Amino acid sequence: MRISVRILGHKSPQRYAVRRAVLAAQIALSQEYPDLLVEIAEVRERSEIEKVTPVIIYPSLVVNDWLVCVGRFPSKDEILIWFQQALQEA
Questions:
Q1: CATH code of the domain in which 70 resides
Q2: Could you tell me which residues come within 8 angstroms of residue 63 by beta carbon, excluding any fewer than 6 positions away?
Q3: What is the strand order of the sheet 66-69 is part of?
Q4: Residue 38 domain boundaries
Q5: pTM for this entry
Q6: Number of domains in the chain
Q7: pLDDT by residue (tens digit) across 9-45?
Q8: Residue 35: helix, strand or coil by DSSP?
């Protein structure tokens, strides 16, 4: 099982905060899915972010090519729901 995550954010502290929430969700889900692989990529370039969303200043999150969160910091619980949906669709 694999989930691809892209953290879109122009500023480093914002990406770091979202990454921490993603990692916390991964740890929580790994008890139920021990073979789960979560691939995390950080997208910093404005031109690449604009291909997905016009929101540049605040972070956004993409899970398996699905834009799930735009312009805010998602909670671990929200990310868990998105991960579970991605696993169901796989």
A1: 3.40.30.10
A2: 3, 4, 5, 79, 82, 83, 86
A3: 37-43, 2-8, 60-63, 66-69
A4: 2-89
A5: 0.92
A6: 1
A7: 988 788 999 999 999 999 999 999 999 999 999 999 9
A8: coil
